[in-house]
Amino acid sequence: MRHFNKILIANRGEIALRIQRACRELGIQTVAVHSTADAQAMHVRLADESVCIGPPSAKESYLNVAAILSAAAVTGAEAIHPGYGFLSENAGFAEMVEAHGLTFIGPSSAHIRMMGDKIAAKTAMASIGVPLVPGSTGEVTDLDEARAVADRIKYPVLIKAAAGGGGRGMRVAHSEGELEAAWREARTEARTAFGNDAVYIEKYLDRPRHIEMQVMADAHGNVVHFGERDCSLQRRHQKLLEEAGSPALTAAERDALGEVVTAGLSKLGYRNAGTLEFLYQDGQFAFIEMNTRLQVEHPVTEMVCSVDLVREQIRIAAGEKLGYTQKDVTFSGHSIECRITAEDPETFMPTPGAVSVFHAPGGLGVRVDSGLYAGYVVPPYYDSLVAKLIVHAPTRPEAIARMRRALAEFAVVGIKTTIPLHQRILEDPEFQAGDYTIHWLERFVEQRQTDPVI
């Protein structure tokens, strides 16, 4: 089997640090690429080598394929790990990496391309028996077709961009009178955001949970799952808090879904890490999309399964077998992750700036993934995520208590963060009871913003 001596990490921030840690434990040297704005970032300071690949703009740096490939050539890197975001789900980038004699640490470009097109992904999943949300069988190209689909599956319906992500290119129509405007707005936003105005239609579920399943597959036909994550706490389709496992599922439901998913992906010949996302309502699962990369929230899975998912990615990319079967995967306790962002917890406006004090919480079952340090200046050019606080405990109530304690210890001075919002969520009786859906957090935030000041 091939062993990597040096890996270039085509990302920044906490995920670049996370990949560095896995590489160090495997005895692999790392190359950090960075923009001029990230010259003092922790992922740059801790790498074995670093290469500046452009100015602050992501388009001219972290999305600059030529600069990244040049950095790999200059440093002698043998493989590239894309992390999440940026180029991680860019099939063309994966192809170029391979064309330059390097290994892309992730799925094949064919599977990235397939799952990046939401219509193609649904078609593939239907072919392997994965349940879908009722809706159109492909792109909806005109209003007459849109009306016919909506009449068949009944209102409300959701119009979604085929090349979408992050909630862009999505509109809800609650009646035929709203359909035309929603259809046109979704196409316009999709064209602007993705350069592709293709849309499709699904039944809009009014109280679903967002459940996703982590899978890992090697190049030898072996596929396992590492259970589910509940990612229902979202604001504007952006996740804020995740749990493993879900308070809404039983072990039997997890196992049943896992069997369908792993058998299907084995048929597709999928390789490396992947996450299948589902809506779950009234005991039924419905596939919505697959992410062909490492997820932001992967640490909660690592905590309950005692597995290093990045290490597994690297091993598989080097041609190794998984080395274990589904029966060897065990689940222990409960884990919760809070995404800490540099945003005002009331208005959600970004708050870049200098961090004067940084103190991470600690203790049993507490993990912090962050590139922050005292004196670091959070730049205004990138995603606002600055830390992930993850806890693990034997039970969900104990995990909640541990997270509340850890949030109280977490000190970030100089910029505003969403720590106070997470504290309010953890104190809410409905959250503590596990009684929430994907719409819960929007209402929670709106109620807070409209409460009278006493």
Could you explain the architecture of this structure?
The chain is of the alpha+beta class and 454 residues long. The chain is globular, with a radius of gyration of 22 Å. The protein has 15 helices and 20 strands. An 8-stranded antiparallel beta sheet has the order 13-12-9-10-11-14-19-17, with helices on both faces. A 5-stranded parallel beta sheet has the order 3-2-1-4-5. The longest helix is centred in the middle third of the chain and has 19 residues, at 176-194. It folds into 3 domains: 6-105, Rossmann fold (3-Layer(aba) Sandwich); 134-203, 2-Layer Sandwich (Dna Ligase, domain 1); 209-450, D-amino Acid Aminotransferase, Chain A, domain 1, CATH 3.30.470. It has helices spanning 13-25, 42-45, 65-75, 91-99, 109-116, 118-127, 143-153, 176-194, 251-268, 298-305, 309-317, 396-409, 419-427, 429-432, 440-450; strands spanning 6-9, 29-35, 49-54, 79-81, 103-104, 157-165, 168-173, 199-203, 209-217, 223-235, 238-244, 272-281, 284-291, 334-341, 353-354, 357-359, 366-370, 377-378, 385-393, 411-413.
CATH topology name of the largest domain? D-amino Acid Aminotransferase, Chain A, domain 1
Please identify which CATH superfamily of the largest domain we are dealing with.
ATP-grasp fold, B domain
Shape: globular
Radius of gyration from the CA trace?
22 Å
Q: Let me know the largest β-sheet.
A: 8 strands, antiparallel
State the secondary-structure class: alpha+beta
The overall average pLDDT, rounded, is 95
Total number of distinct structural domains: 3
Low-pLDDT runs: none
Could you estimate the helical fraction of the residues in percent? 25-40%
Question: Helix tally?
Answer: 15
Main sheet: strand order: 13-12-9-10-11-14-19-17
Q: Judging by the overall fold, what is the CATH architecture of the largest domain?
A: 2-Layer Sandwich
Separation of termini? 66 Å
Beta-strand percentage range: 25-35%
Number of separate strands: 20
In CATH's first tier, which class of the largest domain applies? Alpha Beta
